[in-house]
Amino acid sequence: MKGAEKMSGSEVRRKAKTARMAAKKLAVAEEEKKNEALEAMATALIRHRDRIFSANETDLLQGEKAGLPPALMDRLRLTRKRLEEMGEGLCQLRRMPDPVGEILDSRRREDGLRIEKVRVPLGVIGMIYEARPNVTVDAAGLALKAGNAVVLRGSSSASRTNRALTEALHRALAGTSLPEEAVQLVEDPDRQAVHELITMNGWIDVIIPRGGAGLIRRVVRESTVPVLETGVGNCHIYVDRSAKSAMAEEIVINAKTDRPAVCNAVETLLVHRVWAEKHLPSLCEKLRQQGVQVKGCSRTRALFPQADEAGEEDWETEFLDLVLPFRIVDSLEDAVEHIDRYGSRHSEAIITEDDTAARTFMRGVEAAAVYHNASTRFTDGSQFGFGAEIGISTQKLHARGPMGVTELTSYQYRIHGTGQVR
Amino acid sequence: MKGAEKMSGSEVRRKAKTARMAAKKLAVAEEEKKNEALEAMATALIRHRDRIFSANETDLLQGEKAGLPPALMDRLRLTRKRLEEMGEGLCQLRRMPDPVGEILDSRRREDGLRIEKVRVPLGVIGMIYEARPNVTVDAAGLALKAGNAVVLRGSSSASRTNRALTEALHRALAGTSLPEEAVQLVEDPDRQAVHELITMNGWIDVIIPRGGAGLIRRVVRESTVPVLETGVGNCHIYVDRSAKSAMAEEIVINAKTDRPAVCNAVETLLVHRVWAEKHLPSLCEKLRQQGVQVKGCSRTRALFPQADEAGEEDWETEFLDLVLPFRIVDSLEDAVEHIDRYGSRHSEAIITEDDTAARTFMRGVEAAAVYHNASTRFTDGSQFGFGAEIGISTQKLHARGPMGVTELTSYQYRIHGTGQVR
C-alpha cells in the first residue's frame, strides 16, 4: 500500500512537473501555432474515432457490470454526434481571439517609468471531474487557447475513453510545434492522487473541480492550491405580484423541463401570495402535465392540494430532476431572504412588470447571474457568447458565472524603465 | 478548554455574520455616503488620538516586557506622523472613483436578451495580519470604498491599539448612514479563532493574510475560504552582460538599501559572467560601503574575495535585511532558471541594454511584476497609482501584484429580458 501510494505520488508529480515545463513554452506560443494545434486536435478526434469508440464501449460495459445508474451511463456514452460536437468546440475556439498579450492597462509615471498590465496565461490548470468525457477535450482546448497546460483527472469509470481521447490529442500535438506534454492525464485511480494534485502549490496554479457536490466539497476542503469552485446550482425563480402569468408559465416550464439535470435549471419556485392566489393552480397544473412532480409549502397546498408536501430539505436540494417545490412568500424581501439562505449563488431570476422590484432583486441577490424576465437556463458559456466554458464559477474571486478562455488567464505587470529608482 | 473554544467560536461567528448583514447594506450604498464615511473615519483618528496613543503605549510596554525584537517594536509603534498618514490614506481613498456599478461589458443577443457584466463588491473580507496597526485602518478604508465589510484579526501584541483604532472608526461610522458593523475586530487571542474564520465559507468571501511566511503558509494550508496569498518577496535582479555599470549600481543599491525590510527589496543578485569580470568588484565594494553584507558563490568570491560564502540556503532566503548574496551565471537562461527555482513570483528585474534580452526575460519569468532597467522597489500600490494597497498578491488567481480598491471587487451578470427562454 505504502509502495503503491508512493508510485501514485510519482505519477501525479511527474505529470504536473512535465506540464509546468510545457506551460512555459505555451505561454510564449504564437496565436497561429495555437490555432493550428486546435485544428489538428479536432481532426485527430475524427481520425481516431474507432479507437475512441471502442475504448468507450469497454468503459460502458464495465459501467454496466458495476451497476452505474442510467444517468451516469448516459453521461459516459460517446455518440458520433457528441464526438463531432467536441471537434466543433475546438474549431470554435480556433476562431476566437487570443487573449494572451492583451494590454489591459498602461500608464506612464512622471519619472518616465511605463507600467503595463498585460494578460498572461494562468500556467498549469488542474482539472478534476466526473464521468463526462467531453470535459477532457473541452478543458484541453480551452486551456491551450489561453496558453495553459492542463493536468486532467477524470473519473475512473471513463478511464479508457479519457485515455483514448488524450492519445488522440497527443498525436495531434506531436505534429505541431507545440509540446504534446501540454495535456497530461492522471491515470492513477487512487484517491490519494487527487490529494497530491490539489496540494502541489508552485506547480499547479489553479484547481477546477467539476462534478457533484461531494467532489467539489472535498476539493475546496483539501486543496491548498487556489480553487475555482464550480457548479452546484440551487437556482430560484421568484414570481412577483405583478408578473404576467403567461410569461411566468413559459419561463418556469422552460427553466424546469428543458434540461432538468443541469446546474442552471430552476430548483425552487418562490411565488408572491397575491400572484399565487390567482395563478398558482394553473401553473402547477401545467407543470404536472409536463411530468413535473409539484411540491409545496402549506400555503401552496391550500391553493393546489395535489402538491406533495415540501419543507426544509426541499429548499436545500438541487434535484437535477423533474421535481419542483413551491413556496409562497409575502414580499420580495422574503424571497431575497430565502435565496440568501438556500441559494448556491449560481442563477436567480425575478419575473415582474415592476422595474423597481426588478432592480431591488437584482442588486440584493448574491449570485453569479441574476435575471429579470428570462429563464435561468441562459447561464452558459456558449449562450453568453464565450464559445465554450470550463465550468460555471459560484465563488466571487477571480471569475463568476460561466468561465471561458479569458477566465483562464491572469495578468502581469511589465515595467519599462531607463534606470529609475525610488 | 472546550468551553473556551466554543466561546471563541461564537465571537468569530457572530462577528462574521454581523459583517455579512452590514455588507448587504454597503453593497448598495451610494458613492457619496461611502466618501462621507471615509472622511469621518479620517477625522475620528485625529479626534481620538489621545486614546489611541495611550492604547499603543500599553501595547508597547507589554511588548517590551515580552521581549519583542526591535523590528517588531518599531512596526507596532504609532507616531503622530504614522497616524496622520493613515488619515491621509483614507482621504486619498475618498477622492478615488467608486468601482462599484461599473459596467465591464454589455452585449445584446439576437433574441433581445441584454447581458450586462457589472462590478460588485466581494462581500466580506477576512483580514489576518501581524503587528502593524496601520493595516487595521487601511483595510477598513479600502474594503469600505469597494462596498465590502471586513473582519479584522490583528496580532495580539497590537490588540489594544487595534481596539482603540476600531473604536474610533465605529464612532465615525455611527455618525453616518452606513452600518458601523462594517468593520469587525476579532479580539479572541486563541489561534482557534483564526481557523474558524478561514473556514467560514458562505459568510466570508475571501481571506487575505498579511505577515510573515509562517502565517501565510498556515492560512493557505487551512483555509477553505478562497485566499489571496500575499507578500513573501524573494526578489532578484539579473545584471545582463550589456548592462551599464552606473545604472546597475544605482538600481541594485536602491533595491537593497532603500528599505531592506520590505517585500519588494532585492534578495539575490544574478550577474552575467562577462559583466561580472569587469564590474562585480566595484559593485560589491559600493554595497559594502552602504553597510551591506556581501555574500557570493565561488565564482563571485574568486572576483571579490571579501564576500562571505553563499549557497543553497541563501538563494532560498528572504533576508529583509542588509545582506545580499551574488551568483554569477553564464547566460540569461541560467538566470531565468534560478528565478524559476527560488523566486517567490513577486518582483524580478533585468538590467540590460539589449531589448531582445529584456523581452525574453520579462516573458520568461513568472512574477507579478517584471522590470527592465528599474528598481524592484516600485512594486507598491501607491507607486502604481492605486492610492493604497491591501497587500501584494503573489498568486495568479484574481489579482496579481499590488491590490487596491478595484482588486477588492467581483462582478455579477445582470440579464434583462422580456420573457426569453431557451
From TrEMBL, chains A, B:
Principal location listed in the UniProt entry: cytoplasm
Gene3D superfamilies the record matches: Aldehyde Dehydrogenase, Chain A, domain 1 (3.40.605.10), Aldehyde Dehydrogenase, Chain A, domain 2 (3.40.309.10)
Catalyzed reactions: L-glutamate 5-semialdehyde + phosphate + NADP(+) = L-glutamyl 5-phosphate + NADPH + H(+)
Tree of life domain: Bacteria
Coiled-coil regions listed in the entry: 21-48
Record's subcellular location: Cytoplasm
Positions of the Aldehyde dehydrogenase domain: 7-290
Protein's pathway: Amino-acid biosynthesis; L-proline biosynthesis; L-glutamate 5-semialdehyde from L-glutamate: step 2/2
EC code: 1.2.1.41
CDD domains: ALDH_F18-19_ProA-GPR
InterPro entries to which the protein is assigned, alphabetical: Ald_DH/histidinol_DH, Ald_DH_C, Ald_DH_N, Aldehyde_DH_dom, G-glutamylP_reductase_CS, Glu-5-SA_DH, GPR_dom
A molecular-function term among this protein's GO annotations: NADP binding
GO cellular component entries: cytoplasm
Entries under Pfam families matching the protein: Aldedh
UniProt entry tagged with the keyword Phosphoprotein: no
Keywords linked to the UniProt accession: Amino-acid biosynthesis, Coiled coil, Cytoplasm, NADP, Oxidoreductase, Proline biosynthesis
GO biological process: L-proline biosynthetic process
SUPFAM superfamilies: ALDH-like
Family that this chain belongs to: Belongs to the gamma-glutamyl phosphate reductase family.
Function (record text): Catalyzes the NADPH-dependent reduction of L-glutamate 5-phosphate into L-glutamate 5-semialdehyde and phosphate. The product spontaneously undergoes cyclization to form 1-pyrroline-5-carboxylate.
Protein's name according to its UniProt entry: Gamma-glutamyl phosphate reductase
The organism of origin for this protein: Paludifilum halophilum
Gene encoding the protein: proA
